[in-house]
Amino acid sequence: MAVSVNLAKALDKEFEDKSLKEILDASPAALAGITDAKAAALQELLGIKTIRELGSNKFFAVAGVLVALEGKAG
To answer: Residue 48 class from Cβ within 10 Å (0-12 exposed, 13-18 middle, 19+ buried)?
Structure first.
């Protein structure tokens, strides 16, 4: 089953037509709103060099789960 996702607003223009592998291997600066300076800070502070590493980082994963749980709390 093929899945199509429009990531145009999430990525810098130059990455809109790249393959998923190319996007995941790219610097976080390829994400819309993350500057080269912010990507450099992610690398320096957390060792994150790629979008793949950002997406699989345990701290970001835990934060995402906590935010999702907040919506379920009640």
So the answer is: buried
Token pair belonging to 61? 């994963």
Over range 15-29, report the average pLDDT: 96
Residue with tokens 């709390």: 73
Q: Which two tokens stand for residue 8?
A: 């145009």
Whole-prediction pTM: 0.84
The values of phi and psi at residue 11, to 5°, are: -120, 155
Strands annotated E in 1-74: none
Instruction: Name the phi and psi angles at 57, rounded to 5.
Output: -65, 130
Q: Classify the C-alpha dihedral 15-21-22-27 as positive or negative.
A: positive
First CA to last CA distance, the chain: 37
Q: Closest Cα to residue 49, out of 20, 26, 19, 21?
A: 26
